[in-house]
Amino acid sequence: MKAFYGRDDIFTIWPTWPVLGLDQRTQWNLMQNLPGGLAKQKELSGLSHALGTKYFISYNPWDDADEKASLQKMSDIIQHINADGVVLDTKAEAGQALQDAADKAKPGVILYSEGMAVPRDMQGIISGRVHNDIYYPPLLNLNKLIKPDFAIFRVAEINKERIRREYSLSLFNGHGGRDKRYATG
Question: Quick one: average pLDDT of 35-50?
Fold first, then answer.
């Protein structure tokens, strides 16, 4: 990867897409049932850190039968594998309970929202992603005005869309890189 494009900023394990719900296993069962289990994920986390990459797990709040137990399980897994962040699947907001559960395992765990964070939650969520299903003219992204250092990443699939439009949209809204020397937002 270094020869082709430098490095990845984040490596994410996302075992729930698209299999969560096909049987009775929870998202945490699926995480533990990956090849090599949590021991292999701990190894991958160490490899990621050695390469200067953050290691994230996913959290699917819609799979919570018992939110308190689920947050405890998330915290246990973060601590066990030394994860750096949590991708919030289908969630653009985060409550204090979610951040507390992540920080209990490892202070400073990054919560990475799907979609734009709700402004009241932007203190706890420092980055988010905007999917490529938005095909309207570039609109002003107010989150960058509210909190200029809020990182916004765009999901773009080059086999599905014109990538030039994605570059323009990202430049217009200051999506992407965090280097303040080149920030456009």
Answer: 96
Tokens of 14: 């996302």
Q: State the first-to-last Cα distance of the chain, in angstroms, to the nearest integer.
A: 28
C-alpha to C-alpha distance for 48 and 55, rounded to whole angstroms: 6
Place of tokens 């570059």: 167
Cβ-count burial of 131 within 10 angstroms (0-12 exposed, 13-18 middle, 19+ buried)?
A: exposed
Mean pLDDT of 156-179: 63
Longest dimension (CA), the chain: 49
Instruction: Using the CB atoms, write b or e for 22-48: b if 16+ within 10 Å.
Output: eeebbbbebbeeeeeebeebbebbeeb
Mean pLDDT along residues 80-100: 85
